[in-house]
Amino acid sequence: MLSSSRSWIPAVLADVVLILVFAAIGRDAHARGDIVSGAFSTAWPFLAGAVIAWAVSRAWRAPFALWPSGVAIWIGAVLVGMLLRAATGQTVVLPFVIVATISLAVFLLGYRALVAVLVRAAQRRQRGV
């Protein structure tokens, strides 16, 4: 899917932007002060988790694949993110874990599913089906 040697760059950018959007939405919903700098302080553990997952899963080989890349990045972002939040004294309560897990799944897996649908549709058009 998307066979360029640099196709991982838009996937990384999308992951970063969507994790930041997740953090900004949460900060705004809870009226937690400055959304921009606050989003970075909320997002960094999840961004670190995503980076680790990218490396461990070697997601650059198929950056837009739901499986295994997307799932690995999603789980890594949530798991490592929560562990880093706990280690640094940030809030880790069950409702937040649930919301983060679902939200990051929708964001990190959702755009990959959309890319897959668009690629399949383009391939069908090329074949004249």
Topology:
Blueprint (H helix, E strand, L loop, with lengths): L7 H22 L5 H23 L8 H22 L6 H34 L2
Notable characteristics:
single chain; 129 residues; mainly alpha; 4 helices; elongated
A few lines on this structure:
The chain has 129 residues and is an all-alpha fold. It has helices at residues 8-29, 35-57, 66-87, 94-127.
What does this structure look like?
This protein is an all-alpha fold and 129 residues long. It has one domain. It has 4 helices and no strands. The protein has helices at 8-29, 35-57, 66-87, 94-127. Helix 1 runs antiparallel to helix 2, helix 2 packs across helix 3 and helix 3 (66-87) packs antiparallel against helix 4 (94-127).
Sheet of most strands: none
Percent in helix: over 70%
Rg (C-alpha, Å): 16 Å
Shape: elongated
Strand coverage percent: under 5%
| Count of DSSP H/I helices | 4
**Through-space gap between termini:** 19 Å
Number of domains: 1
Overall strand count? 0
* H and E string: HHHH
Low-confidence stretches: none
Structural class label = mainly alpha
The average pLDDT value, as a whole number, equals 92
